[in-house]
Structures are given as structure tokens and as C-alpha cells.
Write a structure and sequence with these properties.
single chain, 304 residues, alpha+beta, Fructose-1,6-Bisphosphatase, Chain A, domain 1, D-Maltodextrin-Binding Protein, domain 2, seven-stranded mixed β-sheet, five-stranded mixed β-sheet, 8 helices, 34% helix, Inositol_monophosphatase_CS
Length: 304
Amino acid sequence: MSSPNLHPMLNVAIKAARAAGAIINRAALDVESVRISQKQINDFVTEVDHASERTIIETLLTAYPGHGIIAEESGSEHGAKDSEYVWIIDPLDGTTNFIHGFPVYCVSIALAVRGKIEQAVIYDPSRNDLFTATKGRGAFQNERRIRVSKRTQLKQSLLSTGFPYRPGDNFKNYLNMMGDVMQRTAGLRRPGAAALDLAYVAAGYTEGFFETGLSIWDVAAGSLLVTEAGGLIGNFTGEADFLEQRECLAGTPRIYGQLVQILGKYSKFATAGEKAAVRQAEQALAPQEDEGEAPAQVEGSAPL
């Protein structure tokens, strides 16, 4: 249902997100029958992603035929190619969770105007949670104003992240990164849907989020939610121009600053000296194997 108090473009985005959510919820009733294909190793797409995306694009372009579209599954093949208004769509963020029946996934829709995110909707269909933001008007969850957490100490903070899973990802580097963060916090979670992770930072459920390898449709809507809720978002070195850098860090202002101090050296924008120090740390943690010796085995135990 649209609200007269909301920006008209946000109302259209909400309509599109709820229509996509209805498709996702119907499919979730019999998820084992959903057809799945693999884009690359550990990167899945389903018929539900495609159906959700088609519904969103149809809803948006019916209302605004002159607008552009960037969507996860169809890229920029729909909509106007030279519009100042571009919708950025992830029709089902958390596909791997969805195909396992793990209820952490969402629809993410953002509108960029001349390159700046001005409208945002993240819809969690399994909980019927609707997160919205219009630039300059605050962030909301189910029409209730939300703010980032008031916690200021990292040791009291709950953070979320995403683990690398694609070929070529530097998993060892991520383990070092997580090790640096985990020992300083109250907990680290890996829910599996980056857009929802950012919505949860905005709502104050977590104090921060970090991940590499993300695309613009993963973070566009969530970035506006975070800033409109009083948080900060950027890359690991704290620079705000991050949307297409595949490196995202978000948090409350105080926690964000502390995380930049920890994660900055892992950024692809880190100085040569910082990168060298990270490489040295990786080498120091590499397992040392005695030449020619097999691992010791406890009597009666199975081979390691």
C-alpha cells in the first residue's frame, strides 16, 4: 500500500519490492522444486531471481519509462541508456540461503539520480520487514524511524560480514581480517545477504558490517539506509566513494572509525607498506611442516 507522505518514486519502489516478495514467498513454500542454475562456482541463480527481477523492472518502467535500469541478472539491457535516473536492483539477495530454505534473503531496490543514491527499499519477504529511505528524510523500518546503535566500544559490538567463496578470492587474507576483528568484538555473524546486513546496521541490530567482492546492487539501497540512520559507509580506508569498488565497510560513527583502523591495511587502496605488513603476517601464520615427518597420531585414533 502506498503512503501519501512518501516520495512518489519510493512508493513505486515499494510496490515493486512487495510484488517481487510475493513471488519469492510463493516459491519458498516448495523451494525444492525451484529450478537452479550456476553462474560460476558457488554463485547461483534461480527462476525466482529472474521472475522477481522481471516484475520489479516492469513495475518501475511502467511508472517511469524514461528511467535507466541496472539489475543483477539482466545488467543494463532494460530502460533508457542515458537517463539521469537509474534504478539499481537485486531481485533476490541471498539466493544461496533461499535455495536451502534458510530464511535470510531480501529484495533490494535503489534509485540513483545523477550518480547519487536518493531512494532505497530493502524488503525481507519472510519477515515482512520493509526498510525504506529517501535522501534527507531519514530511514524507516515498517514506517517506524530507525537509527544506528548507540554503542561506541568495539568490544561491546556485534558485527556482520560475508566470507569469500568465489574462485580467486584471497581466503587467507580474509581469515586474518576476521581474526583481527573477532578478538576485539562481542561477536561476528555471517547472515549471507549483504543488503539485509546493511539494513540491520541502519536499524541498530548490529554496530557494523564489512565485506569485499560486493557489486553495486548489493550495497546501493543499504548505503542510503545506513547514512539516513546516522551511520557511515565507505571502503576499508574510510573513503565514501565506494559503490563500485567491491569493498564495503559500514557502521555507527564511532565503530566505523575503529574498524577503519583495523581493516584499512587490508584494503586494495592500502599503502605499499601496509600491504607488505599484511603479507608478512600471512607468512608468519603459515603452518610450519617438519621435513619428512608425518603428523603425530594418538594411539587408537583415526588418521588425521
